[in-house]
Design brief:
Four copies of one chain form a homotetramer.
Chain A: H1 3-18, E1 28-32, E2 38-41, E3 57-60, E4 66-68, H2 77-86, E5 92-95, H3 99-107, H4 116-119, H5 134-138, H6 141-155, E6 165-168, E7 172-177, H7 180-203, H8 211-221
Antiparallel strand pairs in A: 1-2, 1-5, 2-3, 3-4, 5-7, 6-7
Helix pairs in contact in A: 1-7, 2-6, 3-7
Chain lengths: ~230, ~230, ~230, ~230
């Protein structure tokens, strides 16, 4: 079942490797069916070199039960499920340990919107969640990771497609999008702008960008009056 | 029409990718005919892997109207046009989001001339423009980006071929040259010297270079008494 | 003799190169037979491009004498032997001069556990030994390097498989594991988390992680209740 | 004439490119005949991709006159000649604009001996020369660059084979050795240890290494009692 989505999720996982945002088995990509009944995700701890489309694992979104696949799903499966259930616009989710993004997550700092590269993809600062509490870690850790992400997005009243990424404190980035492929692109760009923000802050800790530049760049590429790229 | 220039601009765009100063569809290169009637530029938002010489877009410089090409031109087209109109010596223009240069642009800091690598290509500091004002961003943003570049170059009384690059605040670098190919080389070198300047300033914020070293290196490579390289 | 182990150690040495943690002849990997009688190690100062499995050198662990091999063993051989003798669980040892790890070693600073990437592999801070004293350097330097590593591990009461790496002050990292291959993986990850820690500390010198997150990530991947990856 | 040396110098120039310490036509390598009559050096400003062994230029060391070759020699030719004339043990010289080394040169700071990676190749700090004075730059600039290097080495009473590299202030590194190939290796290692020193100093500006560690590592690899590598 779901051959096309498996292939899509598989290719998106390989793209993570090609874009140098993961080493070894770090990182995972998932996708969801349009009716939001099934999620397809990378198996846990299998080397990218050995991965095939058929190794992707299928789970029922509501129950979280595996319905197809030889392997255990990614250990971060519960986090993905929480996000898909809460945000019906997300069709792909990515988790990586890309190094600049992880550095901000470990420092407990948001990636502030400092330039147009950021504004072309993320409509505002990329937030960093609070740390999980002891009981949230000890029990249902991966589910609670999802909940802390949801809490942060709700508290800041963000649209997860307008700011399609977040940092989990002491952990690393999650990115999302309207497809597994787009989620990977957002994860790659998140890493690139983390790199730029890191150096910007070392050069000038007071750096900032006016909100009207953020508006302009975001909306010239997204939304109904967008004029970047080609008419579809 | 203009097959040779299209090929030249196409190759220069691919070179941006080979030199690792762009990812995805970021960055664009343009060229202009010798009579300065037509500009050739990369289409907007087309993946480099799919790009062909024939996809390049031709515009009339004076009117800014597209005269050939299937696609929309780069969203930065108006910026290129302003620069070609104002500086008749420029025959190629490049825009990238290369990471070190963007970091300086986001920090709002010029790339100061700190060594001979800089002096071999840029005869003085590479300036950073002021931020655009709200009305300049809201209306005719790309044209106003060009105007702010022109304003900065004029205010500092620079020769854009002697300092063939600039940073637009909160945005990133533009570079230019006597051909699309040369403009790309200047963009690549601008990124390299931004990398060097970044580390130099972390090691010693008081770093500086005597102007007679700047003179020497610039003029041993450029101008009528240049002795670097081979006689043409 | 020991063809399989030689091949394993040889492949692990090549992997160091592929993972970009060594240049030239820097770095070495060893393995030990299950009965802990013989150690196999890379020869000293032979270019990786010319290396063959047959070039690996075999030494008797107890006496430290070479029992097979055309070449001199790695100059760090005595350090490896001290570690194998003291820690019977180690089956592979790696030494590199990977740049971020060396930077911490030169700065005399531990790589603190600041995030889950660290916790997935190292159950606590990766310590930095004290500097060797003059007499320890002048006589039996390599053996004393091993002894200083042992001293540091014992003083901190660490399990070398739970924190499978260490920094020798002013020198660089040693990593270990339950096979030569796993030791290389630990060396590669040690470098990656050093890179992340370096940037984290520049962004926020006060960064830290709660111990319950360390516990969770370490034990979801290691130990008897681990659930990361696939059942063996 | 000198086909073997031309080939050697040519290959050493290509190695600079392979090791990523130069881009475009930056950097040059030279060699000298054993009787020290002739120097072979890369031509000025020719793309590495087009370079052939036959393009190498031959000059008479004493007079500095070109005796063979179609092209102008490297613009840094006079610097190389001054060094060969003054230091009879040098058989190869390299100049690059590798980025970490240039950063130290631009900051006007020596690369201090902070660890064993440094000590394996350089027996002490890699000094940075004073800046050239105005008259030294205006007339005979390249020759005076050589003289300032000589002045610095003499003042510090260094053996240029024991510390086979130096930084010219606001410019970049020169490295040397007992062959063009060895000089390139020293240039590559100089860049690597500059990278390590840069990060070490950001982590801990007070970092230092005891001189007995420097002695040990240098002499276990160099000199008559060396035991690193294989007996020749």
């Amino acid at each position: 079942m779901l051959e096309a989505l498996k292939e899509e999720v598989f290719q998106a996982n390989l793209e993570l490797k090609r874009q140098n945002v993961v080493i070894y088995t770090w990182g995972n990509v998932s996708g969801i069916t349009e009716d939001r009944k099934y999620m397809v995700i990378k198996p846990s701890g299998i080397a990218y070199e050995k991965l095939q489309a058929d190794d992707m694992v299928v789970l029922e979104v509501e129950s979280g039960k595996k319905v197809e696949g030889e392997w255990n799903p990614s250990s971060d499966t519960e986090t993905h499920l929480v996000l898909y259930r809460r945000f019906p616009k997300l069709l792909g989710i990515v988790h990586t340990h890309s190094t600049y993004a992880v550095s901000f997550a470990q420092a407990g700092k948001a990636i502030r919107a400092l330039g147009t590269t950021h504004a072309d993809y993320f409509y505002g600062d990329i937030p960093c969640t609070r740390a999980l509490k002891e009981d949230e870690v000890k029990k249902d850790y991966e589910k609670n990771t999802g909940k802390v992400i949801v809490e942060c997005i709700e508290k800041l009243q963000l649209d997860p497609l307008a700011i399609p990424g977040i940092l989990v404190k002491n952990h690393g980035p999650f990115a999302y999008g309207i497809s597994p492929k787009k989620a990977v692109e957002n994860a790659v760009v998140l890493e690139k702008i983390a790199e730029m923000a890191f150096r910007t802050l070392l050069l000038n800790p007071e750096s900032s960008m006016e909100s009207y530049i953020l508006d302009k760049h975001y909306f010239r590429k997204h939304g109904k009056n967008a004029y970047y790229g080609q008419k579809k």
